[in-house]
Design goal:
Helix content is 74%, strand content 8%. With 148 residues, the protein is mostly helical.
């Protein structure tokens, strides 16, 4: 399989989030409809469901293009993606009135405040998760498609 290398890289990149995001959406639907949490959570999930797979695919193409120069392992390359997603996500959430910065943390849906210490710890967990997903799952699909 030597043709369409970047298309295969894109498909490999979108594979994992395309499988994971429906489970996250199911959790949002459960919280909204079954637990009857009265916050407009659908505003918080629509854009990530559209953008995250796209960005994972493009990020995998970028790894294919730059790995000869950078020699960066796939897991570390994938771990850099949250540094782009976080500012974009926070900016979008502020524009959509989902998040409000307040002293000491972020106010979500004008109902509950999350302190910056918890957000920092969660970000470190996200970095670890991204490393593992990229190293194991995206790396596996890259090898199966013959691009690794």
């Amino acid at each position: 399989m030597t043709t369409h290398r970047y298309l295969r890289a894109y498909i490999s990149g979108i594979f994992v989030p395309t499988l994971v995001l429906p489970f996250i959406l199911s959790g949002f639907i459960f919280v909204r409809l079954v637990l009857k949490v009265p916050v407009p959570m659908e505003r918080a999930i629509i854009f990530p469901m559209a953008l995250v797979p796209l960005l994972w695919g493009l990020w995998n193409i970028l790894w294919i293009v730059t790995r000869a120069r950078t020699h960066l392992p796939l897991g570390l390359h994938g771990m850099l993606l949250p540094f782009l997603l976080l500012p974009a996500g926070i900016g979008g959430a502020v524009l959509l009135d989902i998040l409000t910065p307040v002293p000491g943390g972020l106010l979500i849906f004008h109902t509950s405040q999350i302190p910056y210490t918890i957000l920092g710890t969660a970000f470190l967990a996200v970095l670890a998760g991204y490393f593992l997903f990229w190293h194991f799952f995206v790396g596996f699909v890259n090898r199966v498609l013959g691009i690794a």
